[in-house]
Structure formats: structure tokens, C-alpha cells
């Protein structure tokens, strides 16, 4: 006759153990998002340190957006004013004036929003932007027009990637609204610069390869 297996628990203890395992399993299922990829989490800002403000949560990506828009204005406004005076092409001058007007308004908005969120912004262009401004200052005539159109078109294409990513994933309503406006301004400026006929698209940065 085979031996009888004896449980090390009493009936009451066994019921408590089963209940504990059942509750734990339910908790694990609830905590795991359905169909939520790692790339989706990154785009939404999850995994980043979050600062709570009176206007909602702010992530590092949100701060990067505000910083890049501020830096864009710090060099594109003076560059546009210079182009309005120095450019050979009337079309380049028209585009330069529009860029100055748009970035002046956008710069006011980004500084106002950053102040409300408690985010510190730069007050001078970065080293790359300073070198581009120096490069423009040394050009004249047709060469100036070509450099202006190409440099600003490349810069707008670069900042658009940040603006679009934050617009898609930020959890802050105010940042989302600002990113929407910034994206529209940046895309309009890209179109305006291309309308000069001076942008060499083969010299622009490669398009990032989409992740699967």
C-alpha cells in the first residue's frame, strides 16, 4: 500500500496560502500594461525623472524641448536680422523677416512657460550656433544667401525631431500645446527656406531609420 502524502500545512493554513498566491497573481497582471512596448514607454516619457509643478508633471524631455526652442531663437533672430540687411536675394530677405517675427513671438512664449514651470533656460547660443553666426558674418552676396538657407534649414530639421517626440509623448498639457505651436512654426520655416531654391537636400542629415 502506497504511503499517504502529508501536507506540512493545516487546512486553514492551506486556504490562506492559496488566497495569498491568487491575490499576488492578480496584482502582477494589473501592473503589466497590455501591448505596451519599450519604445512606446520611452516616447511617452516613462522612466524619466518627473518634477511635479503647479502646471503638471515635467520630464527631462519637456525641459529639452523648452531649451532647444529657446536656443533656436537666440541665434536665428540675430541671423535673420542680419540676413534682412545683407542678403542678396529679396526672397531670402522676406524669409528672414518672417523667421525673426515668428521666433520673437515663440521666444516670448517659451520664456513665459519656462518661468511658470520653474525651468531655467540658456541666455546665449551654444558653441555650434556661435560658429554658424560667425560663418555667416564672413559671407557675402550669393554665398551668404546659400549659407543662410542651408544652415537654418538644417537647424530646423534637427529641432523638429525633438519637438515632434515631445508633442507625441508629453504628459503635460501646457507643454503639449506649446510643442504643437512650435512644430507648426518649425515646419513653416522649413518650407519658407526651401522656397528660396537654395537648400541642398543632399547635404542635410540622413533621415533616422524607424525602429520596428
Automatic annotation (TrEMBL):
A Pfam family recorded for this sequence: DUF4142
Entry-linked InterPro entries: DUF4142 (IPR025419), Ferritin-like (IPR012347)
Positions of the DUF4142 domain: 61-191
Stated name of the protein: Predicted outer membrane protein
Natural source organism: Thermostaphylospora chromogena
Amino acid at each position: 500500500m502506497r504511503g499517504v502524502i502529508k501536507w506540512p500545512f493545516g487546512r486553514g493554513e492551506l486556504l490562506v496560502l492559496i488566497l495569498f498566491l491568487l491575490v499576488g497573481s492578480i496584482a502582477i497582471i494589473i501592473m503589466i500594461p497590455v501591448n505596451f512596448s519599450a519604445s512606446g514607454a520611452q516616447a511617452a516619457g516613462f522612466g524619466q525623472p518627473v518634477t511635479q509643478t503647479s502646471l503638471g508633471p515635467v520630464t527631462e524631455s519637456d525641459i529639452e524641448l523648452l531649451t532647444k526652442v529657446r536656443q533656436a531663437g537666440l541665434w536665428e533672430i540675430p541671423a535673420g536680422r542680419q540676413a534682412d540687411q545683407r542678403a542678396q536675394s529679396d526672397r531670402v530677405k522676406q524669409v528672414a523677416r518672417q523667421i525673426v517675427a515668428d521666433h520673437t513671438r515663440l521666444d516670448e512664449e517659451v520664456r513665459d512657460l519656462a518661468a511658470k514651470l520653474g525651468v531655467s533656460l540658456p541666455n546665449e547660443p551654444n558653441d555650434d550656433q556661435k560658429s554658424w553666426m560667425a560663418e555667416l558674418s564672413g559671407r557675402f552676396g550669393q554665398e551668404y544667401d546659400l549659407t543662410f538657407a542651408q544652415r537654418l534649414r538644417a537647424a530646423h530639421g534637427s529641432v523638429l525631431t525633438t519637438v515632434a517626440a515631445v508633442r507625441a509623448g508629453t504628459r503635460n498639457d501646457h507643454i503639449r500645446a506649446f510643442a504643437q505651436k512650435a512644430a507648426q512654426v518649425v515646419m513653416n520655416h522649413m518650407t519658407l527656406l526651401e522656397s528660396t531654391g537654395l537648400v541642398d537636400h543632399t547635404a542635410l542629415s540622413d533621415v533616422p531609420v524607424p525602429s520596428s
